[in-house]
Amino acid sequence: MLRIHFTDADLACVQVAARPDPLWEIFFSLLRFQRRKGLWAYAGWHRSAREALHSKGLAPAVRNVLLPLYPGGTYFPDFLTPGEASEGLDAGLEAILDVPRKRVLRELNILDRVNGAPDWTRQLTDVGPRKEFVRTVRTYYDVAIRPHSDHIQAHIDADRSVRARNLLDGGTDALLSGLGPYMRWRRPTLEVDYPEDRDLYLQGRGLTLVPSYFCWGGPVSLADSGLPPVLAYPLRHEASRAGETGAQGPRAPLSALLGTTRAVILRATATGATTGELARAAGVSAASASRHTTVLRDAGLLVSHRDGPAVLHTLTPTGAALLRAGEPTHRAAPAGRE
């Protein structure tokens, strides 16, 4: 178990990442090629990504270069997921290139002791081989992840809406209490199901929560407690049509009544969403999403409120009742362990 210890100052500095961290998603997506648990949730992506990687001739690089550094064991090097990646892939890759040689060697030695590592990985202490490795990482992202970025962002937007509502309803305590099922908030400690037993004392540094589309099972933190504290946690995936990437549509009756796009928009509004978030969820333009929300609002199914430059849409009781009537009887399946 991982026990994360908060002070009052830490509780004031909890934040949820606004967009997917590309380097964490690379790590977790590579695990999806190494483990079968939870594969039902990524079947469509798994199939299309494998086909794309093979067609581009990248399968050998994934097998021989990436998988040894992102293994399915209990450790992988922290320098591969720098905090700068929160600003985007370019910033993250530049940070990997800037990691001091001694730190790279130290973390690679840990990887070798814990999981084993090929001898060639020691070359990453030098700038030239590390640049070549970064090019491989970028190419993998462009082929396997970037084509699905809107779908991934839509899932994160929905998760953030839930976290925001928890925060508004009950403060940071409610936000942390709602992170289950693999985390339990017992103030002032967040208990996380983890493959090793350790304590992380935040000591006023706060905690960045990173929702991850490809993370399956328990959350993952950095191994080095001296680095800025981060906890990547899994989003929930639905059992219904979960293998597909793209908008997850409701079952036929609701779609038949409203039309496919409006049914998707109504469903995505369940946790509150902006016009841009609805557009990503439905795979349409912002202008098109705005027209659909106008129709749904005029029908009394949702309400819209301007929040600064954005418009937030939420369900009315009538819209919620219609959505419940059109939903499958099963609920979202909770994420399982890695």
Structure description:
With 338 residues, the protein is of the alpha/beta class. It folds into 3 domains: 2-17 and 150-234, no CATH class; 22-148, no CATH class; 252-326, Arc Repressor Mutant, subunit A (Orthogonal Bundle), CATH 1.10.10.10. It contains 13 helices and 11 strands. It has helices at residues 8-11, 22-32, 43-55, 59-69, 89-98, 101-114, 127-145, 149-177, 252-258, 260-268, 275-282, 286-298, 317-326; strands at 2-5, 14-16, 183-186, 189-192, 198-201, 207-212, 220-221, 230-234, 273-274, 302-307, 310-315. The strands form 3 sheets. A 4-stranded mixed β-sheet has the order 3-4-1-5. β10 (302-307) and β11 (310-315) form a beta hairpin. α10 packs across α12. The longest helix is centred in the middle third of the chain and has 29 residues, at 149-177. The chain is globular, with a radius of gyration of 21 Å. The model is unreliable at 239-252 and 329-338 (pLDDT under 50).
SS field, number of helical segments? 13
Which word captures the global form? globular
Tell me the Rg in angstroms.
Answer: 21 Å
Order of H and E elements? EHEHHHHHHHEEEEEEHHEHHEEH
